[in-house]
Model the fold of this input.
Amino acid sequence: MNTADAKRVLETALICSSQPLNLRDMGVLFNDEIAADTIKDLLVALQQDWQQRGVELLQVATGWRFQSRPEMRAYLDRLHPEKPPKYSRAAMETLAIIAYRQPCTRGDMEDIRGVAINSMVIKQLEDRGWVEVIGHRETVGRPGLYATTKHFLDDLGLSSLDQLPSLQDPSELGESFSKLEDLVSESQLEMDLEGSQIQTSIELSDEGVVVAEESSSDLVEHRDDSAGTETG
Done:
């Protein structure tokens, strides 16, 4: 098979695949008759072929995929003008702590945030497939150690944690939250919860966390009774 035909096969497979393809997957396309280094060269050539288009070929944590460029988001959003619910500030702050301080326990997160973290917040991130328990700290109670997943990197269009926005001071939660929030908003995510296992949408109002159950039109508000304390 010549180079032009091999590129066409790769291009077709990547466009038609609903998931990123890794080098092993792409090797199967050619019965492993094309070396991995050659496939990498073909992928680089494909990236160059698509440079002036609204779609780009990107390497993420679990492989390669085609996706729309960030500057196309404003136009694509017109097809779906109703914005889906976004994650609460508590969820985003918790995600930022895990992303920048992993592995960490729930106690570590609460120490940094200064408030208790609602178990629903962590469950939401787990059900989305963004965080997981990768072990336990050898201390009293053996609390779980949370870390981000490859799925988290895929959703943000990153191939490794090294591509997260850098921090001058990793102890500054506010800065890490802001950087991660910008990255999420600029990603290709719709930020809805459809397709994930969680059946609850969470938003943060001025008065507290509003939980809207999909199976009911009733709204239930959860507030911390202590003055000035947010329920995470």
About this structure: The chain has nine helices and seven strands. Confidence is low (pLDDT under 50) at residues 188-232. The first strand starts at residue 55 and ends at 60. The chain has two domains: 3-74, 89-192.
